[in-house]
Amino acid sequence: MSRPSTSFASAQEDVDARDPSTPRLRRARKPGHDGGGRGQWRFFRIAVSLAFALIVVTTAFSAWVFSLGPLPLEEARKASTTIIDRNGKLLRAYAMADGRWRLTVDAKTAVDPGYLKVLLAYEDRRFWSHGGVDPLALGRAALQLVTRGHIVSGGSTITMQLARLMEPRRERSVYAKLRQMVRAVQLERQLSKDEILDLYLALAPFGGNLEGIRAASIAYFGKEPKRLSLAEAALLVALPQSPERRRLDRHPEPAHAARDRVLARMVEDGVVSQEDAAQAKAVAVPRLRKPMPILAPHSSDAAMATVKDTPLIKLTLDSSLQKTLEALARDRAVAQGPNISVAIIAVDNETGDVLARVGSSDYFDERRAGQVDMTRAVRSPGSTLKPFIYGLAFEDGVVHPESLIDDRPTRFGSYAPENFDMTFQGTVPVRKALQLSLNVPAIALLDRVGSSRLSSRLKQAGSNLVLPKDETPGLAMGLGGVGVTLQDLAQLYAGLARLGAARPLREIMLTKDEREPLRLMDQAAAWQVGNVLLGTPPPENGAHNRIAFKTGTSYGYRDAWSVGFDGRITIGVWVGRPDGAPVPGLVGRTTAAPILFDAFARTGKIPAALPKSPKGVLIASNAKLPLPLRRFRPVGELIRTGSDSAPRIQFPLNGSRIDVDRSGGGQAAAMPVKVAGGVLPLTVMMNGASVGEIDSRRQRLVDPPGPGFARLTVIDATGAADTVVIRVQ
Fold first, then answer.
1. Strand partners, 721
2. Higher-confidence position of 72 and 313
3. Could you confirm whether 383 is annotated as catalytic?
4. What pTM value is reported for the model?
């Protein structure tokens, strides 16, 4: 049962609570329950809530950053393949697969400092100090937007712009800007400032398919960005802000106005003077794009096919010489008439490096088959192999440059060679026979040294001779009856300049050069050949005794050749139709030789002297030569007397190894030579040089050469000879 008093009291309290006029009695608070505790509790709850919210936001932000994935650096670093010369100059660049031109660049060495100064002053003045995001620049941009009502300057740093270029997006939003800021910080943590600047300068857009400062400078100004005027630098700073609206070949006026605004800003910031800016503003902007350079197109194509997935390929070529010889080939081909092309190759004698390769007179001329590299085409060499026939004859001791040789109608089996002018000179010195390129003496010497031996020796020296199908080397190869390339001829002639040590040609510069010299012929023989060719009468207006050279004309006037060397460089020239059609009047001496001498003149250097004669070379007039060397006798005319036996070297034996005693202060003990048969006097030749005569006992002591292979030859009075090759140790 409830109490009435209690119910009345409760009801009265309810009435008092509802009646605002009723005075309220405050309940006394118990000790320890004051307002300070409640405030602390409230603060604690707020702090916990904020911390939780911060953790949630941080976790979400971290998850978002993680979801962005790694920086696309590999994709951003892709660039056009560029071919450079031995000095780092651009020869040719290839567009990327999507057609863009993007060339890598090193800001420190390949970009004008004045351009970098304007770029950083205009785009990111604190580039070297901030961590990817510049709060001051962002604040300044926001303040200018509020106060002026339009964007005056952007708050993006170079690093943020690079992030946008690496991940291009169309929208301009807070989210996009935040993404750029995050990526910028990541870039700063992974790359150095120099790497960031280099990457930006390679990716910045300049209109159309041009990306990067190098592509833009070459396309608009026709030069590398290493030296830019103030007007050019300001223009290149302005273009990336709106590359399509300011594209020079379509919208030059907006580009002009944007450049002038950059200059005005530089004056305002005190970066350039008012006078310099005024002069720069007076310069007109380009309105057309220039073509990308295409020097040494055949060498570049070959390098691209050889070296895969390499953005930068360095060749041994010299861009200055290459450009000069390309112009020479183009001019001379036009002068020769339609469908005729000219190929030129220049080789450094010492290193075997190709300094210039002109594969055709015009790479884009279809009538002249311009894209066919005629320096690598197999053609008939005419008489250009004759010097190597004479070289082997000198090496064997068969003849000397001053020996006499007959130039008269001669049959070699069913083969009867004739001279180019259908006349014969009679008896002439071997020197003159080679200088006049007489055919009969050359074939007579080839018959003596052997066609197979000539072929194997040239292949040993790195030349790839091409014979007709199912054919073996024969005497006709001495007059062009074999296929060879211009670059192989240049390698062989450079071997003569190196005194008989040919070196494989090199055109792509790799980290390690593992080429070894290849034996062509003995030093004495190579020097004698070079000395003879040095006296060949030059073409009209050519300098005498400066260039050792040889000409050649293939059968049917299809190919005209001229190859020559001085002490520094070897140059080969080919003239003809790439399709192999005959050209009446196409002769090596009158067509190719003048181009050869002009090419030497255009190197800009005086022809260097040939190497000095090596030790032991026999230099004498015909009258002072050993009797067997005074006159060459063909194989069919060798006379046999007495026992009708040719001389035979009994010691040392062919292929034997001779251990020489050098204990006496380094001086080698004499080596005995014993001979049987032959007609006295018997002359002993060591590596093509006479070392005396055999005495009546048919033996002689000779001083052995240095360590290595040596060729010992004995010749009797009739011209009969025997030869052995020994190894001296």
1. 715
2. 313
3. yes
4. 0.78
